[in-house]
What we know:
Elements: E1 18-25, E2 31-38, E3 43-47, E4 50-51, H1 61-69, H2 87-96, E5 106-110, H3 116-123, E6 127-132, H4 136-143, E7 150-154, E8 167-173, H5 182-191, E9 193-202, H6 213-229, H7 232-253, H8 259-268, H9 279-290, H10 300-309, E10 312-318, E11 321-329
Parallel strand pairs: 5-6, 5-8, 6-7, 8-9
Antiparallel strand pairs: 1-2, 2-3, 3-4, 9-11, 10-11
Amino acid sequence: xxxxxxxxxxxxxxxxxxxxxxxxxxxxxxxxxxxxxxxxxxxxxxxxxxxxxxxxxxxxxxxxxxxxxxxxxxxxxxxxxxxxxxxxxxxxxxxxxxxxxxxxxxxxxxxxxxxxxxxxxxxxxxxxxxxxxxxxxxxxxxxxxxxxxxxxxxxxxxxxxxxxxxxxxxxxxxxxxxxxxxxxxxxxxxxxxxxxxxxxxxxxxxxxxxxxxxxxxxxxxxxxxxxxxxxxxxxxxxxxxxxxxxxxxxxxxxxxxxxxxxxxxxxxxxxxxxxxxxxxxxxxxxxxxxxxxxxxxxxxxxxxxxxxxxxxxxxxxxxxxxxxxxxxxxxx
Length: 332
């Protein structure tokens, strides 16, 4: 972390200020090893440039595995000239409704994964702060090397180590449906944004792929197999689906007599994403769907109500979908 971010941080237990004790400095003044110390003696280590406010990944372990295996598949730089070029930028802009520059602005991401949306913030000239519960923070930090305008933190989004009202905007995309309390997550995010700043949240919709019986069945199966075989069965199916099943289903969809049969297979037995044109993205997204410990789906009314309860006004769904919602933080 760069010391410039110290004034944004606080003790997640007390909300009090933290003192920085430096043990090793890296390029561009980055603190690679050290500790953050509260007035009450709580000590939070900085390891490989990442402040650590939690001791385990808990329910987010699958994402640590996922992003270590596919660290940059969804980054714009990896998709130049390919079928998914521009997708990550379009997705972020559609959900946050930020189409221009972020110069001079600091934004927070709750559940940053490997950092593909932090990359969009940096491309727009903003300071990017990302937090994740999982070991994906290691991948995210490597993605930005020694960029002093990026802070990556390992922490609990229900007890964020950030002061109230320090961010110009905050977002959480594809994350809160993997937690035990999505409303609590939105409320915690909103508290870190100053009055007049924007808050955006996007979660799985109630209808669609993530509500398929096949996805739930594979998730349950992999939950049981993980005890003995780890994530390897899920990984094997993700590659099978991404490179064989999805293309075959895509071809079958174009045959009138097979569409109904294929649809039944997709919804009940073999989850696939034939509409995604890049096999790498299909593999990643299938694995992402069938491995989380927690995965819920929601309605637009639910998500809009979360933002209202989190102290936001002008709450509305965005062009990305009914369960992608943005609001403006009020002073209360």
